[in-house]
Amino acid sequence: MTHVLVLGGTAEAREIARLLHDDDGFEVLSSLAGRVANPRLPVGPTRIGGFGGPSGLATFLADGAFDALIDATHPFAATISRSAASAAAAAGLPLLAVVRPEWVPAEDDSWTRVPTVPAAAAELARRPGGRAMLTTGRQDAHEFAALDDWWFLVRVVDAPSGPLPRRHDLLRARGPYTIDSERALLHEHRIDLLVTKNSGGDLVSAKLAAARELGVEVVMVDRPARPAGVPVVATAAQAYAELVARA
Ligand code: NAP
Question: Which of 35, 69, 80 to mutate to test the pocket of ligand 1 (most atoms within 8 A of CB)?
Fold first, then answer.
C-alpha cells in the first residue's frame, strides 16, 4: 500500500485523488489551504489548513508515514510548492509536481506579458485609463486599488478583504465559463482590457477566446519560477501513471 499526500486546490488534484482513491494499491490524503469559503472537495479523506512552513510539512509527512508527495497546487501557489520541495527533500520522499501547460497567445491575440501582479498594475498605471476586467484573484485585487483612472470589473470566487479600486463592480463567480457568457460579459461592461494570471487549462480559458473575438487587449501575468529539481507532469493521468510505475 502506497500512502500519498496530495497538495491540492485544483481540478488536477481532485482528479488524482479520485484515481488513487479507486486504486486499492494506494491510500490518499488530500490537503487544501482553506482559502476558499466553500471549496470543491476531492473524494476521499481531506485535511484543511497550512502545515506551518516546510518543517511543519516535513513533520506531517513523517508522522503520517507517507511514501510520496504530489504537488498539484495552482501554478501561482509558489510558497507551498517551495515548501513541498524542501519538505520532500528533508523527509527523503519522492515528489512529483502536476503543472498544467501555460496558455500561449494565438495569432490574433494582443497580449502584454508582465512578470508579477504588481507589474500588471504598473502597466495599467502607464496607460490613460479605461475599463478593465480583473481576474487575478481575491488575494491580488488590492494591487489595483490606487488606479483611479480605471474602472474595474473584479471577478472573484470569494469577496476580497483588502482595499479595492475606487471605481469597480464586484462579480462573485466560479468557473468554468463558456465563450458565449464571457463574450456577453465583456460586451455588457464595455471592457477594453483583460488582466489575468497565466493559470493555463480549459476551465477558465474562455475569457481569452472571447477577448480575441472582441479585440480586447490582455495583460497576462507570467507564472512564478518553480522550485528546481522537482519532476513535473502536465496531467493527473500522467501523475497517476508515474505513481503506479514507482509503486
Ligand atoms: P501559497 O501562497 O503558495 O501558499 C501560502 C500558504 O498556504 C502556504 O505556505 C501553506 O501554509 C498554505 N497552503 C497553500 N496550499 C496548501 C495546501 N494545498 N494544503 C495546505 N496548506 C496549503 O498559495 P496560495 O496562493 O495562498 O494558494 C492557496 C491554495 O489555493 C493552493 O492550494 C492553490 O492550489 C489554490 N489556488 C491558488 C490560486 C492562486 O492564484 N494563487 C488560484 C486557485 C487556487 P504553510 O506554510 O503554513 O504550510
Answer: 80
Of 231, 232, 230, 239, give the one whose Cα is nearest residue 26: 239
Contact 203, 176 (CB under 8 A): yes
Order of strands across the sheet that contains 150-156: 111-114, 217-221, 193-197, 130-134, 150-156, 168-172
The mean pLDDT value for 49-69 works out to: 97
Q: Is the pTM of this model over 0.85?
A: yes
Side-chain half-sphere CA neighbours of 247 within 13 A: 18
- pLDDT single digits (tens) 117-126: 999 999 999 9
Rounded CA-CA distance 59/69 in Å is 13
Separation between Cα atoms, residue 70 and residue 238, nearest integer Å: 12
> Is there an atom of ligand 1 within 6 Å of 137 CB?
yes
Asked if 193 and 169 count as a contact pair (C-beta separation under 8 A), the reply is no
pLDDT tops 90 at residue 108: no
Residue nearest to atom 46 of ligand 1 (CA): 53
Report the sign of the C-alpha dihedral through residues 82, 174, 106, 100, in that order: positive
How many angstroms separate the CA atoms of 2 and 154, rounded?
A: 43
CB 167 within 8 A of CB 151: yes
Question: Would you say residue 37 has pLDDT above 90?
Answer: no
In the block, cell 504588481 appears at: 118
pLDDT at 29: 98
**Whether the predicted pLDDT of 78 surpasses 90:** yes
Q: Which distant-in-sequence residues (6+ apart) come within 8 Å of 241 by Cβ?
A: none
